[in-house]
Amino acid sequence: MKINEAYVVYFSPTHTSQRVAKAIAREVEVSEVIPVDLTLEKPDETVLPASSLAVFAVPVYGGHVPPLAVERLKSLRGTSTPAVVVVVYGNRAYENALVELDKLVTSQGFKVIAGATFVGEHSYSTEAHPVAAGRPDAADLQYAADFGEKIGEKIEKAATSEELYGVDVRRIRRPKQPFLPLFRFLRKVIKLRKSGIPLPQAPSVEDENLCKHCGSCVRRCPTGAITAGDELHTDASKCIKCCACVKCCPHRARVYNTPFGVLLSECFKKQKLPQSIL
Ligand SMILES: Cc1cc2nc3c(=O)[nH]c(=O)nc-3n(C[C@H](O)[C@H](O)[C@H](O)COP(=O)(O)O)c2cc1C
Ligand code: SF4
Ligand code: SF4
Question: Is 204-257 assigned to CATH 3.30.70.20?
């Protein structure tokens, strides 16, 4: 079976999901790879043809597909269009996210022929408290490339679209999670919640002198929570805590010092590996 083009569809505030999705799509051997970036806006209602492949990639937020990504993904429909579903998580756990993404795109008319879970640097990772820092690394991207190549082979082997069989993403292997660090994490989270210490509701600019009003955070914010000309403030009611503004700030003026970042760094040191099914 011949696929003409691949659509790489991603919601990716800090770019890890985007990098993984593009590394996969590059190896599928198609005439064109078309990026569909859902991070900053909802795309126009579009039907992706059955003769194309869609690679969907989203980050995991609280074990789920981010609600904003769900809303934006609903603009895209398939006509039994073959699809690959990928979730990228910050080395803690992806919980229901892959199954949710699978259900969503299936209900939108896509046929899921492959799935994968990857680790990306956690949005809350800092130099002082790293969480999966530098992921996806070279090995992850090689895994993504090999996965893309195998998807290409699977498509090529199928004589017709009916022969291109779907997969049950619930059968993907879950990464091993040592019990003690998980137990420690859960205990610390309960303690933190009981302490009543208020958690920051959005990133902030602690040292106003550091901000050079370059506007990068305004351009990268998926929800319009930062206003041009008023970059020192953040509208917490709009903020989804994605940390795009923190990671893109060239002057390190924006910070998001959540105690969760410290707990994640302490408890999820052992690096998890990508997994896939096809
Ligand atoms: C609000 C929020 C919630 C998150 N929840 C989880 C989670 O439940 N499990 C996990 O392992 N990582 C979690 N992460 C980390 C992201 O999944 C991870 O950093 C991912 O690579 C970000 O993708 P992006 O670079 O495409 O934005 C969360 C990040 C944010 C901002
Ligand atoms: S990216 Fe940083 S320096 Fe630039 S406007 Fe935003 S906070 Fe200021
Ligand atoms: S203000 Fe909030 S939503 Fe906007 S980029 Fe920063 S963390 Fe993300």
Answer: yes
241 lines ligand 3 (CB under 6 A): yes
Residue nearest to atom 1 of ligand 2 (CA): 249
Residue closest via CA to ligand 2's atom 4 equals: 214
Residues of the chain with pLDDT under 50: none
> What are the structural domain ranges in the chain?
5-176+271-277, 204-257
Residue nearest (by alpha carbon) to ligand 1 atom 19: 122
Please, what's the b/e burial string for 99-115 (b: 16 or more CB within 10 A of its CB; e: otherwise)?
A: bbbbebbbebbbbbbbb
Instruction: Name, in order, each residue with C-beta under 8 angstroms of 45's C-beta and a sequence gap of 6 or more.
Output: 75, 76, 77
| HEC letters along 226-262 | CECCECCCCCCCCCCCCCHHHHHCCCCCEECCCHHHH
| Residue 214 Cα: closest atom of ligand 2 | 4
Same fold, 5-176+271-277 and 204-257: no
Smallest-distance ligand from the CA of 243: 3
Q: What's the predicted TM-score (pTM) here? A: 0.96
- Enumerate helices (H) and strands (E) in the chain, giving the number of each: 8, 10
- Pairing of β 254-255 and β 204-205: antiparallel
Q: Which of 61, 72, 241 to mutate to test the pocket of ligand 3 (most atoms within 8 A of CB)?
A: 241
CA of 40 to the centre of ligand 1 (A): 17
Residue 167, helix vs strand vs coil: coil
Task: Locate the ligand 1 atom nearest the alpha carbon of residue 131 and give its number.
Answer: 19
User: CATH number of the domain at 5-176+271-277, please?
Assistant: 3.40.50.360
Tell me which amino acid residue 34 is. Answer: I
